[in-house]
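Weekly structure sync - notes
Attendees: PM, LS, DV (DV joined late)
Agenda: review two folding runs queued last week.

Item 1: First target. Sequence and structure tokens pasted below for the record.
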Amino acid sequence: MARSALRGFTLIEILVVALVIGLVSGIIVINLASDEHAAVEREARRLAGALEHAAALAQWQSETLGVSADGSTYRFWRRAGDATWTPIRDEEALAPRALPSEITVMPTSYAGGPVPLDAILPFRPSGRNEPYALMLSSTSWSLVVSGDPLNRVHVATAASR
């Protein structure tokens, strides 16, 4: 009896291909998730450095500076003698920062209480500032950037959402 020239795949061959596709898909998902975590952490560390710089600059220049966050951007401010806030434009480290589209930043607390979304958190010339916190989030990861009364800034994983 002659064998047919047309032969299909065996069950074993199909299972091996499905296993390989599953492994590759898993590796891709893991790498994409860790990239998102790295992006949030990188932005949190950048914000932490800018916050420390702003607090020190407020002391050095004997003026009140502040920071605000609106979801997609954070910005630093200078308070004038008439108590109005103007954006800081002459300091590169304190330039407004638009975050990547998958990351958001929001103020979460100031002096132990909740903060309105449009608030400007001040850094006083005396160096004695209230504790504050801002949260940077992506779809799967959140970090809290917080400052204490001694102007030390910390980055920590946020509590479960």
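Item 2: Second target, run right after the first with the same settings.
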Amino acid sequence: MCFSAYWLAETLAWLVAVCGLVAILMLLLPVVLGWLGWAGTLAMQVIRIIVAVIVIIALIWLVFDLYACAVSGPLRMH
């Protein structure tokens, strides 16, 4: 099902979901952690790094899927 309409719809849905979750986290966490002072600032920086790592892993997964579909069909690691 590489590069099919279903694959494209599923990929776009995941992309929208990830972007939405990251946006909500980045809006709410500073407000919630603001009352902790410097510890809240430190916690927010750690959370931003964790979110960045998760987004980068998702992008690597997407690029691998695109490469696998372009080269030889689906190469799922089970």
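Discussion on item 2: Residues 38-71 form the longest helix (34 residues).
Action: LS to circulate a short write-up before next sync.
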